[in-house]
Amino acid sequence: MRTRVAAALVTVLSLAAAAGEARADGDADDFKTSCANCHTIGGGRLVGPDLKDVEKRKDRAWLVGFVTDPTGVLASGDPYAQKLLAEANRVPMTPIAGMNAKRAGQLLDLVAAESKLEKSRFAGGAVPDRAFDAKNVPVGRDLYTGAAGLKGDGPACIGCHRVGDTGALGGGRLAPDLTDAVARLGGRKALSAWLSAPPTPTMKRLFPFEKALDPEREILPLVDFLQDAAARHAPSERAPARVAFVLLALGLAGALLVGMEIAWRRRFRGVRETLVKEPS
User: Fold this and answer.
1) Over the stretch 94-117, which tens digit does the pLDDT of each residue have?
2) Residue 106 located in a structural domain
3) I need a labelling partner for 257 at 20 to 30 A (CA). Which of 85, 103, 120, 170 fits?
4) Same domain for 28 and 96?
5) What does the DSSP assignment read for the chain?
């Protein structure tokens, strides 16, 4: 009987340990896809603050509330949330799809555990922090415009974004102008981390984990292209671009109408001539 009880106890403990490991792995994956694009644990600031020992700076209840609903906390005028927003160059934290208090608590447990380590596995980004390389600029431009396809078959940036280097009509208006993206997100390292797992709902659908950008062949060239564009251009003005688009559209429409008038006028003349000749 004692042997059976001991065996059952060992089995229960093993299952509990396995469940704990599975949850820990799940929390780590969750942090990697939901948080690591803007935060490190002991690796310094990216777009958002370094989360090492974050509960020494703010209590858990506040942190759970902020992680669960960052937009609501910011809208409430909370002083600490406003301080974080100012430190992030006015780039607000993106709400995480499906986030709730339980999941936020599990992420904070992971951060607390990683903070106790000499070096967290989330101390460094997935993309090397490399200096600007002018040779990468043409490569990044081709990736941005779609002249070169992305490894994961994701859409080209130009479909939704504008950059000052692509002319008045070059680029979409669904998403922000990227000319100043390097400075706005806090530097090359921060932008590279953001591109490795974009947190916004639209970008998450377009670039899921299996379509993630390649750090060396795609992210770094894109960052080099954007840094070069920022050095040579101011963020493009949308109002003049819209005026140029409207004027071009009107010009093309007018030319099309004139062309149709010329083509169809001859046709009508031929029809009338036939109708006149047949009775005579």
Assistant:
1) 898 889 999 999 999 999 999 999
2) yes
3) 170
4) yes
5) -HHHHHHHHHHHHHHHHHHHHHHHHHHHHHHHHHTTTT--SSS--SSS---TTGGGTS-HHHHHHHHH-HHHHHHTT-HHHHHHHHHTTT-PPPPPTT--HHHHHHHHHHHHHHHTSSS-TTSS-SS--PPP-GGGHHHHHHHHHTSS--TT-PPPGGGT-B-GGG-TT-B-SSS---TTHHHHTTSHHHHHHHHHS--SHHHHHHS-GGGPPPIIIIIHHHHHHHHHHHHH-PPPPHHHHHHHHHHHHHHHHHHHHHHHHHHHHHHHHHHHHHHHHTT-
Task: Judge whether 74 lies within some domain.
Answer: yes
160 in the same domain as 108:
no
∠ CA(231), CA(125), CA(205), 5° rounding?
85
Give the CA distances from residue 17 to residues 23, 43, 81, 113, 153, in Å, rounded to whole numbers and listed in that order. 10, 29, 37, 16, 40
Question: What is residue 20's predicted lDDT score, i.e. its pLDDT?
Answer: 45
Q: In this structure, are 157 and 225 located in the same domain?
A: yes
Count: domains in the chain: 3
The string over 127-153, giving b where at least 16 C-beta atoms fall within 10 Å of a residue's C-beta and e elsewhere, is beeeeeeeebbebbbebbbeebebeee
8 falls within a domain: no
Give the tokens for residue 30.
Answer: 């969750």
pTM over 0.85: no
Tens-digit pLDDT profile for residues 61-73: 999 999 999 999 9
**Matching residue, tokens 């992420």:** 107
